[in-house]
């Protein structure tokens, strides 16, 4: 049939529904949303749903601006950070030069480049799965996208190295995807004061335990926000509904709750990493709410299948080349991760 688009979509992690499972395959937060969020949900006036949601989302943007130390006109809110990132691709990458991003990173970058017909080049990570700063300097490009910490590796790139990339590419937009920054590492927010070409994206899905709500945001110069807002309003101006804005605002107000639970997740991550290493596993250094690990004494696919038979769901990248021997495991509660270690230990007798 004429005119149909052919594209290979992003493949998300499975969403099993077993009641007694340990689900650590999609990097969801191990803890529930904050009490303030649940109170806001209970108090929400359903009668207001007859009206359209806000175009500007100023209530949420003002709370974010206060929390982040930026101005309202430096923020855009959308239907998850995927929405913001897709908008950013369309808004900022419109030259004939290739956009650069790592060969092992968030899989949606390549999908969006294909979908929007943006030329791109995947820059190989080092043998240690690290971004090589010099690979993004002194080369013509149409923009750069870096997840920091990176996914699915979990590795954080030092901010001075990120700044070196930004400084060397001031004629294009550099997107820094900070979906996991609450679990470790230094944010690129300070770069906004010096560089107009920086655009930072974040999500409420990971650190705010609101993956089911679908709210994300972008931070950049007023010029970049003006451009991306124009694109957003050209096709989906009401992308954040009334319930989502109310609950996301409550989450920002409950920042201390999330700081506490995310610190606990990070502590469990470090404990779990040490336990895996004690079993002989290779574990990449992670500053996220997941770890990427190469099993010892068993193929990654075999361990994936064994854990699934025990109702423990992890992520296996069967078609990812260099990652085919690795599993990504999200960090659940301390009790859940202790159970995972116990089950893996039983396999080795």
From TrEMBL:
- Which SUPFAM superfamilies is this protein grouped with? PLP-dependent transferases (SSF53383)
EC identifiers of the protein: 2.6.1.9
Q: Which UniProt keywords apply?
A: Amino-acid biosynthesis, Aminotransferase, Histidine biosynthesis, Pyridoxal phosphate, Transferase
The pathway entry for this protein reads as: Amino-acid biosynthesis; L-histidine biosynthesis; L-histidine from 5-phospho-alpha-D-ribose 1-diphosphate: step 7/9
Task: Determine the domain of life of the protein's source.
Answer: Bacteria
Instruction: Give any Pfam family that matches.
Output: Aminotran_1_2
The enzyme's main class, written as a single word, is transferase
- Which residues does the UniProt record annotate as the domain Aminotransferase class I/classII large? 19-344
Q: Which cofactor does it need?
A: pyridoxal 5'-phosphate
On this chain, the residues bearing N6-(pyridoxal phosphate)lysine are: 206
Q: Which GO terms describe its biological process?
A: L-histidine biosynthetic process
Q: How does it assemble?
A: Homodimer.
Please give the PANTHER family that the UniProt record associates with this protein. HISTIDINOL-PHOSPHATE AMINOTRANSFERASE, HISTIDINOL-PHOSPHATE AMINOTRANSFERASE 2
Protein name from the UniProt record:
Histidinol-phosphate aminotransferase
* Organism lineage: Bacteria, Bacillati, Bacillota, Bacilli, Lactobacillales
